[in-house]
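2024-03-11 09:14:02 DEBUG pipeline.ingest accepted 1 chain
2024-03-11 09:14:02 DEBUG pipeline.ingest length=163
2024-03-11 09:14:03 DEBUG pipeline.predict start
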Amino acid sequence: MKLHAHEPSLAALDALVNVDALCLLVGQDERPLGGAAGYADWRLDGALSRVLLDRFFEGALNEQLLMPGVGLPVQRILVLGVGPRAQLDRARLDEVLARAAATLRKALVSSVAVGVPEALTATDEAIADAVRRNLVPAFGDQKVTVLGSKGLKTLLERDARGP
């Protein structure tokens, strides 16, 4: 597997060449959008914010939204609701990332970038474990890029280098 990790930024999004889809995890109470979702919304000229303001998508648990990647180097953006961020613990992360992997594989996505929000109750280690358990097996030797905190980036880069 080609596992990459970056802190969210406009430059990190612009570097997502050869990535089929961007998957953004959005909390129900995450307003304004932060992290990768906030940067993606900037590149989308506020399209994600408008969808949220119109309440077409609210970030509730199990909610899904597919958007075109106009303004980004990816073709598709899958936005998944994670519910209230205070409830984004290890178990919920596993549930959400398993659903993300299944949805992306069903859509025949072969390489993905996932924007992980800062979880209020899950540590970087828990997020890294959820990525290892759910995304790594689903994408095998394909490219997976994680956009998350500096601590998460450090943990996943260590994984990518091996023992």
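2024-03-11 09:14:41 DEBUG pipeline.report The beta strands are 2-6, 21-26, 64-68, 76-81, 112-115, 143-147.
2024-03-11 09:14:41 DEBUG pipeline.predict end
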